[in-house]
Amino acid sequence: MFHKRKRPEKLPPDPNRPKTRLDYDFNDDRHLRRSFDSELAKGAFMFLKPYRLKFLLAVVLWIICSALNLAQPWLSKLLIDEGIIKMNVRVLGLLCAAILGVHLLSWLMSYCQSLAFTSLGESVANSMRITLFSHIQKQSLGFFKQYPAGSFISRIMGDVGAIRRMITGGAVHVIVDSGTAMVVFFIMWRINRVLTLWLLLVVPMIVAATVLLRKYVRGVNREARRKNAALIANLSESVAGVRVIKSFGREKASLLGFRRAGRDLFRTQMRALVIGSSYGVVVELIQLFGMMLVLIIGAREISQGRLTLGGFMAFLGYIGRFFDPIRKVSNYFNTIQVAMAGAERIFGILNYEPEIQDAPGALPAEDLKGDVALRNVVFGYEKDQEVIKDVSLEVKAGQTVALVGSTGAGKTTLINLLSRQYDVGGGSIELDGRDIRSITLDSLRRSMGVVLQDPFLFPGSIMENIRYGRLDASDAEVVEAARFVGAHEFISALPKGYDTDVREGASRLSTGQKQLISFARALIADPAILVLDEATSSVDTKTEKLIQFGLSRLFANRTCFVVAHRLSTIASADLICVVEGGRIVERGSHKELMALENGRYRELYSIQFEKLRKSGVFSAGD
């Protein structure tokens, strides 16, 4: 499990999936050197299974296009030999009509084939992304803390694209183009064996050029992918940390870093373009050399009567159709190699089972009262490094429990254990007398409402953000929830009211107003247990007083856990627990804890009260 080790060493054994490792760096592309892996390819092609009819249609259209393409030079041969040279007007007319019909049909089939492959590719890619997103959502918090978001997103999107190209392009093209090259060779052999044998001298030159240059092309493309991932990570981190950047006046430094990353990517991509273009030029020169050989030998064959003019023109037409598949097949192997690396990364994630799962026989929680009991709970993110040490606590339904203490004491960890973001390392947590591990995750988390320190609003309207707490809530219920926590007045004052888009109107909302919207979202879910994790620490004391009304309505008739630094906000709590070093060192009501002469809570409260007195503001914690 993630809280048991720094990095997962091996994937859980699964005979139905490729054996891969998740222990890799998302910025490390050294494994792109990996050769073809049949198990990974088999797993990747499983995504194609729901679209096999569409795939079959695309392949059939591709074969028809190839056949029509091969028919054109042969028709040209007949046109010259049977129509023009023999001056047969009837045959000439028929062949002209046939050539025109083949061209039109080839264009139509090519258009349909392109649409079929594009539709297939996008369907497969969409299916893969949905599968990945669904699986990633099931992972624990430790999974998301382990990888940088920008690089992670960059690799996932790039890898899906690489596998899509292999499934809908590379693999099919290797088969079809290899077959095409063999058919063309047979046709050219039938036209003239001498020309065909001379032309074969050029094939090893193209293969050698492909093998030698592909290594450099692959290396620079790998570097370009790294630079692209670095640029996306830089952008993601800069946007996420924009407040810190502005607070310290580091806009120029941030821009400089982004510009440097962009310049590195530009230079690498230009180098890739130059090398890639050089490869194309070299291949073209080799083909030109082959063409010169054919022209010289062909002229001799015609003069000696072993080759007709039409056959010679057809042979010239087939040269490109012979070399193109050979060159493409070489390129496709590089595409397949890249896809193998992408498949390894993707299946490395898909094969990694979520740490927190429903236990066998787990049942949903129904009609919860809200009794919570922690019994000798022990937990550590790292092995042999306990963060929570033998904590026991009993909370009756409807009680409000406050957790206070210094930063890093373990308060938020206890909250995360309560909702099974992590599993306890020892002891148990019970809800209405049931171990929470015997309750299905979905029902457990739906029974809890969480309001975090930094209010987060999703893109969309305020109405949609509140309804996120319960998706089937009516507009009237949304308005009632907002009115209940004291948010209705300021929402109604907005130009579009509840239909205000947070991306457009969020700049006009204060932190306290956003927090009230979060309260309404938690309230409409009607949870049996409510968790507030520093929910008022990001607002000023004046705003804090305004949202106290919303809090009091929110707390009514439900079990509440409040993590707070501002002790004035939890003075009325039924039970206050002081957490230090992963243990509950004091517990009791505000009055009981203040009565302890050398108590830790009394010390904390006195320090905050002194700050209050000096500031002249009638609230603690400023």
Helix content: 55-70%
Task: Give the helix tally.
Answer: 20
- Radius of gyration over all CA atoms, rounded: 35 Å
Strand order of the largest sheet: 6-7-8-3-9-10
Mean pLDDT: 79
Low-pLDDT stretches: 1-34, 617-622
Number of domains: 2
| Class computed from helices, strands and strand pairing | alpha/beta
CATH superfamily of the largest domain: ABC transporter type 1, transmembrane domain
Main beta sheet strand tally, sense and closure: 6 strands, mixed
Summarize the structure in words.
This protein is an alpha/beta fold and 622 residues long. The protein has two domains: 30-350, Up-down Bundle (ABC transporter transmembrane region fold); 372-615, Rossmann fold. Helix content is 60%, strand content 9%. The chain is built from 20 helices and ten strands. The strands form two sheets. It has a six-stranded mixed sheet, with helices on both faces. A four-stranded antiparallel sheet has the order 2-1-4-5, with helices on one face. Strand 4 (426-431) and strand 5 (434-435) form a beta hairpin. Helix 3 (89-137) runs antiparallel to helix 5 and helix 5 (149-191) runs antiparallel to helix 10 (309-350). It is elongated and about 120 Å long. It starts with 37 loop residues before the first helix and ends in a 7-residue tail after the last helix. The model is unreliable at 1-34 and 617-622 (pLDDT under 50).
